[in-house]
Write a structure and sequence with these properties.
This protein has 60 residues and is α+β, with helices and mostly antiparallel strands. It contains two helices and two strands.
């Protein structure tokens, strides 16, 4: 199972993170709103540095 953290925009899937075991795989895709739909290269909307304030929700 792989969960993806991404920008929370209307039309995108909401996530529910419940690990079926002791290991979970999470991809941090970023939350860069300005480049999510408007980009020339796909990497542009993933080019995001998570501030420390956004990480605690995933710590547990």
């Amino acid at each position: 199972m792989c969960w993806v953290d991404e920008l929370r925009l209307k039309g995108l899937l909401l996530y529910v993170a419940v690990a079926p075991g002791s290991v979970a795989y999470l991809r941090f895709h970023g939350r860069k709103a300005v480049k999510w739909y408007n980009h020339d290269q796909v990497w542009e909307h993933h080019s995001y540095t998570y501030p420390v304030a956004e990480l605690p929700e995933w710590a547990s």
